[in-house]
Design goal:
Distance between the termini: 65 Å
CATH architecture of the largest domain: 2-Layer Sandwich
Strand content: 15-25%
Number of strands: 10
Radius of gyration: 32 Å
Shape: elongated
Helix content: 40-55%
Oligomer: single chain
Number of domains: 3
CATH class of the largest domain: Alpha Beta
Strand order of the largest sheet: 2-1-5-4-3
Largest sheet: 5 strands, antiparallel
């Protein structure tokens, strides 16, 4: 795709190179109009030599001045974007002396135009990624309309959507640099999509991205399970969106979550506010240390050794603490029913309602 050189950028190039060049330098657009020059009075005037270049597509060297035609001695070279001539660079002076200067200037301009084209293409790609992910997150009819299937066609299966959410609102101004670097470096554009909106960094790709040690203090990452169909991805995305909007329901001791493990948090996040206190009620007699034990049990999947290591206690102490927790709540976290009930109660407490208040 051919990208024209803007007048502002052309003038910046002139201002950058002119101190080291003892010649008058001009840059012309695709019509032959001077858009940047060492002599500001020439900007906005038509350059006769550039018109010759644009009509022939070849370099034009004026070896003598022609005042009647408005031509001065110098070298004028076409510069390209893609395969198209999009402008002309001109250096005034003896062609034998300024030819090399004109060639260097042309290379400089073409490199600048190429960089502008790459940046423009990247911005377009990022905009498309963001629009697609926003539709995935917000549009419940996207699957039925076939929109997701078309957008996912080029991405390798299985698909996983990860949301990186700031633990506190103030952290949103600095998104995980390590994650963004991994996205750009490791995956070609055909293997992933990413965008920032609704207070989260969303990444759709073949596998989740991970936070470094510093970023874990500011962000939490939540990922959907692998999905082989657009309908499965849409369903798990709805769960992810709920959690992304309520990151305060997650334990501060853990930085990585799968939506499969967040049933209790999703139920609490979507529950009417007038029943939150009821959901938190089982914890009305539970003290802070027992809450820490409960959180550790839920975070580790009940691994006794991991719980003991996390809390800095003996395994026997963990077992006794779980027994005390059962006696105080009437629910045994080691059973599936008890684990769900206590998980809901703990999430309800994090939502901001103290049990028994």
């Amino acid at each position: 795709m051919a990208i024209p050189l803007s007048a502002a950028l052309a003038q910046r190039i002139i201002d950058l190179v002119s101190p080291g060049i003892p010649y008058n330098v001009n840059i012309m657009d695709a019509t032959g109009l001077i858009i940047a020059a060492v002599n500001p009075e020439r900007v906005g005037t038509m350059h006769r030599g550039a018109r010759v270049v644009l009509e022939s597509g070849k370099a034009y060297r004026a070896r003598a001045a022609d005042p009647a035609a408005g031509i001065q001695p110098g070298v004028n070279l076409p510069f390209r974007s893609g395969n198209r001539v999009v402008g002309v660079v001109g250096v005034t002076g003896d062609p034998a002396e300024v030819e090399s200067v004109a060639r260097v200037l042309r290379v400089t301009v073409e490199l600048t135009v190429a960089l502008e084209a790459d940046q423009s293409a990247s911005e377009i790609h990022r905009s498309r990624d963001r629009d697609f992910l926003s539709r995935l997150v917000h549009d419940t009819d996207a699957v039925a309309a076939g929109f997701l299937d078309r957008g996912l066609a080029q991405l390798p299966r299985p698909w996983r959507l990860t949301a990186f959410v700031a633990r506190a609102k103030g952290a949103q101004g600095s998104w995980p640099v390590n994650v963004l670097r991994q996205i750009e470096a490791e995956f070609p554009k055909t293997m992933r999509r990413w965008g920032i909106f609704e207070g989260a960094l969303w990444v759709l790709g073949p596998e989740p991205r991970f936070l470094d040690a510093t970023e874990r203090q500011q962000f939490v990452s939540v990922v959907t399970p692998p999905a082989a169909s657009s309908s499965d991805l849409a369903i798990t995305t709805r769960v992810l969106v709920v959690i992304a909007r309520h990151p305060h329901l997650l334990s501060v001791d853990q930085f990585y979550w799968s939506t499969d493990d967040l049933t209790a948090e999703v139920l609490v996040a979507t529950a009417p506010s007038n029943i939150i206190e009821t959901l938190a009620y089982p914890l009305r007699h539970v003290k802070s240390k027992q809450r820490e034990l409960l959180a550790a049990y839920l975070a580790t999947g009940g691994n006794m050794s991991d719980i003991a290591l996390r809390l800095g206690v003996h395994r026997n102490s963990v077992a006794r603490g779980l027994g005390t927790l059962r006696d105080l709540t009437g629910l045994d976290v080691r059973s599936s029913r008890g684990q769900l009930g206590l998980g809901i109660a703990l999430a309800a407490e994090r939502r901001g309602v103290q049990p028994g208040s």
